[in-house]
Amino acid sequence: MASSPTTVTITGAGGQIGYALLFRIAAGDMLGSDRPVRLRLLEIPQGMKAAEGAALELQDGAFDLLAGVDITDDPRAAFDGTNIALLVGARPRGPGMERGDLLAANAGIFGPQGAAIGAGAADDIRVVVVGNPANTNALIARAAAPDVPDDRFTALTRLDHNRALGQLAEALDAPVWAIRDVAIWGNHSATQFPDVSHARVGSRLVTEVLAERLGGAEAARAWIDDTFIPRVAKRGAEIIAVRGSSSVASAANATLAHVRDWVLGTRGGWTSAAVVSHGEYGVPEGLVSSYPVTSHDGTYRIVEGLTLSDAARARFEASVAELEDERDAVRALGVL
To answer: How many CB atoms sit inside 10 A of residue 36's CB?
Structure first.
């Protein structure tokens, strides 16, 4: 067991996703069974009691790997020396709230948090933004921490990736572990593009197996375009309609997987994560866009050289255009 604990800061720690994260991190599900952790719970003042209650339960869990729990409403204290930052808490869109209002509210959250990360986080800091709009919130946090390398800021699209795997596993009657090289391109929103053109189930292309099961290539393409892509992109809304509230356990699970692969490395294909663009696939430099990625030596790297059809390129570009609109709206607020 490693002697020095890894400090993990969770914002919005008193909320449902934070609650779903805490106990699994303490149990070793994120960083492994040999890596002690110290948890920092950051909450707004009105959420402190919920965080304190979670801390009591963590103590009662008697986790071997848990080296301590700190609770604070001060971002500077929360991110001081932290190694991994899970930015979960965000302002949800309220009734009658315009997009500009939502971006302004979240700029007031993620700007100060980014500045606190820049001021005091550990040299090996890794940040994943979970709170929506995740890609642009990551852009805001990164802009507030100019001295932190931009490859340390990411946004969560692993949930979209996992949703795509789940839909394909059902359609193919195959286990999830047998499916690889699905990609999520663009924004974590309804414009995202879940791409199966390079995906394989076992040794075969997913598109070929779908064509066999559905009665031909045209039927497979219709299922991908009319059922699979919209359902993955709108799965969050589907869950709200059925469950009465948004995704919690699956979002927490995706967050753990995102960090685990980032730190410990991907194996057997790629995954999806929103990372800072340097112009790959024509995405404007600086945008936080989802790509297919691999991780080696603790760094996410974009899978380059993939061929996109004209239809795939159009879907991807539409999602990137939405990211550009969000960036421009934030710039108009004077944040960037």
So the answer is: 19
